[in-house]
Amino acid sequence: MATACFASEDDTVHEDRNTIFEDFYKLVQRIEWYRFSLLILLPAIGSIAAYFVPLQGKAAIFSLVYFSLGMLSITAGYHRLWAHKSYEANTGVKLVLAILGTSSGQGTIQAWAKNHRAHHRYSDSDKDPYGVNYGLLYAHIGWTVLKRDTRLVGRVDVDDLSKDPIVKWQARHYLLLYVSMGFVIPTLTMGLLFGDWLGGLIYVGILRVFLVQQATCCVNSLAHWVGDKPFSSKGSPRDNLAVALITMGEGFHNFHHQFPRDYRNGIQWYSYDPTKWLISLLHWIGLVQNLQQFSKNEIEKSRLQERQIVLDGEKKMVDWGIPIEKLPWMSLDEYKRDSRLGRRLLLIDSIIYDVNSFVEHHPGGAEIISSNIGTDASRAFNGAIYDHSTAARNLLASMRHARLTKPMLPRKQ
Question: What are phi and psi of 331, to 5 degrees?
Answer without folding.
Answer: -80, 165
